[in-house]
Amino acid sequence: MVPGWGTIFSTPTLVQPPFARYRGAMDRPAPVITRSLFVFSLLYGGLVVLAGVLGTKLASLGHWPVLGDLAVESGIFAFLLLVVLSSAVAELHGTATANRLVRFGFIPLIVSMVLLTFVIHVVPPAPFWKDQDAYAHLLGQAARMQFAGLISYGVSQTLNVYVFSRMASGQGRRFVLRAWIASLLSQVVDTLIFITISFYGAIDPVTGAPMPIGPLMEGQIISKLVLSTIMVPPFIWFFVKLGRKLDA
Fold first, then answer.
1. In this structure, are residues 156 and 190 in contact, taking their beta carbons and an 8 Å threshold?
2. H/E stretch holding 58
3. Which of 4, 23, 198, 216 has the largest count of CB atoms under 10 Å?
4. The whole model's pTM is what?
5. Which contacts of 173-179 are long-range, i.e. CB under 8 A and separated by 24 or more positions?
6. What are the tens digits of pLDDT across the range 103-143?
7. How many Å apart are CA 193 and CA 236, to the nearest integer?
8. Can you state the angle between helices 106-121 and 143-166, rounded to 10 degrees?
């Protein structure tokens, strides 16, 4: 035998196919996640993004006895659903899971802000498209308001989960009442934080005077409390029942 041929014709070493190192990860069983948590998480992520877009419209809540005419930014409709979903997750899956849901909500929120800023200020409009100014006016938020939105979202949603869970006292009863009270407190805190950060010290371009944030807070808080009372009780009942049915 020619020297060296024994080495050539010896038992070949198996060559690891490409991407074989990842096969173990792909074959690993998926983490257990209930259907309700999966569905609610998807809905939560979408509503986090949608809340900012809806907020560009001011909606009228009509005329109310004693309270007068009420108006609120339309993002509150999506935001109250976020409150309901975080409370429903806390009821069905525990406080820790609900808090993680709130923290993960920062991801789609920040990504949507970055993408909107990029599309508005970096990507040039088509020559024949004449709505760039209106688009930027409606969807473009100042950095100060974006920062206010991040802070108010994190604090108010975390407070909502804390109050909702704390009131349970280990009994897990009266979840509709707990969700309503938690939503009232969280909406007050959300409004105080957002308006203070966004408008404190800002000058009214029309009058040249500092913006009166007190009356602005008062009107928004009253409107949000009314809307919370209308929306939260039926929706929290619906989502908790839906979650239990999905997991049955």
1. yes
2. strand 58-64
3. 198
4. 0.82
5. 175/87, 175/91, 175/236, 175/240, 176/233, 176/236, 176/237, 178/87, 179/83, 179/84, 179/87, 179/232, 179/233, 179/236
6. 999 999 999 889 988 998 899 999 998 898 888 887 777 67
7. 25
8. 170
